[in-house]
Amino acid sequence: MNTETVLVTASSDPAPRDAAISLRGVTRRYGAVLALDGLDLEIGAGEIVALLGPNGAGKSTAMEMMVGLAEPDAGAVRILGAAPHVATRTGLIGTMLQAGALLPDQTVRSMLRMLRSLQAHPMPLDEVAEQADIVDLMGRRIGALSGGQAQRVRFAIALLGDPQVLLLDEPTVGMDVGARRAFWDQMRRVAATGRTVVFATHHLDEAEREAARVVVMDRGRVVADGTGTEISSVVAGRVLTLRGAAPAQVAALPGVETATPEDGDPERVRAVCSDSDAALAALFTGPLAGEVHEVLVTAPGLEEAFLRITDHTDTDGADR
Question: Residue 244: which domain range?
Answer without folding.
Answer: 238-299
